[in-house]
UniProtKB/TrEMBL annotation:
Protein name: Rhodopsin domain-containing protein
Statement: the UniProt record of this protein carries the keyword Membrane: yes
Ranges for region Disordered: 334-375
UniProtKB keywords: Membrane, Transmembrane, Transmembrane helix
Amino acid sequence: MSFLGVEPGLVPQYVGYQMQTTVIAFMVLGIVFVSLRLFARYVSGSRMGIDDILILPAIVCYLGQRVTGLLMVRRGGIGYHAIWLKTYHPLALQTFAKLQIVMVILYSASVTFPKLSMLGLYLRIFVGKRERIAAYTTMGIVSASFIALILCALLQCAPLGYLWNKAGHPGGHCFNTGVFWRYGSLPNLITDLAMLVLPLPCIWKLKLSQRDKIGLVFTFITGSIGIITAIVRIAFFWNIDGQTDVTWAAVRLGEITIAEPGVYLIAACLPTYRSLFRFFKERTGLTTKGSTQNTWGSKKDTSGMELPSRHTVKSAADGFEELSDEDLISRRISKNKNSTHVQATDYGYKKDPKHRNSNREIRVQREVRVDSVLR
């Protein structure tokens, strides 16, 4: 039951626990997924990029929004009918209105920073001028939408205090907040579509097998799954009247408002887990001897995308390979300023020709170092 006291003999309807459960669940999920992302960067040994940096304000705003959601349940009366609150706990309605402003601001930030992080990841792998311009343009639209939502939240009433104290501000007025809530997610939907489509032309131009292309498409699609919750949120606000019985309707509307940033945050973390999967695969002993090992380097393609390129090494049963004379060299590839520097050193074993049937071998290893690569 909420903090709100219940009058003797009166048992009001209450469903606020539903939103509270959603808030706590997504709070835990957000912490887990961001922690796994940071751990993935640690085990991969790669430097933090702009996409990793943007995740930090994302998780801060994300947790702030969850705390605000809990306060709206515990202090703002979410889960009760507004008519009951107006009769028995009118101050709860004022608290609800004030916290709603904070919720809008933190919601906007919690959606914006994960999307900027994904676009920052695109900028790390796009080398084509058109692709980079498209990514920067999308970042600009996402940022402009963020600023617009904050301004709408702060300027929805004149004066702002009229929102929670109409009697104290005669002559005050508010714009149609119902329209604001219904159309406020449309920019998110548009930019989600842009982020979904943006890498596809580059992927299909890559000289890769159909299987590899599908794998890359799937990787980028996981970063755009927020589009699903954006569509659901728009549908919720179109079909649920959030103005008549605000605190009762806020349970369903609040749940999707909490869930949407959570899905965006998770989506922004998923593409970084490849090195984490590789780490656990090695620790659990799933890599078997004599199998084909894939070493990923960086490859600049004419499609305008710089993606990991796969170098396949067929291992011998003992984990080493036989190399030719020309393989026993060090190769250095230095590209221009828009490309990745790759340094690969091939080591293997080479049998002594004089003892080709003997067990005398020189055993060394293969080392590949890649700067700035998608992991």
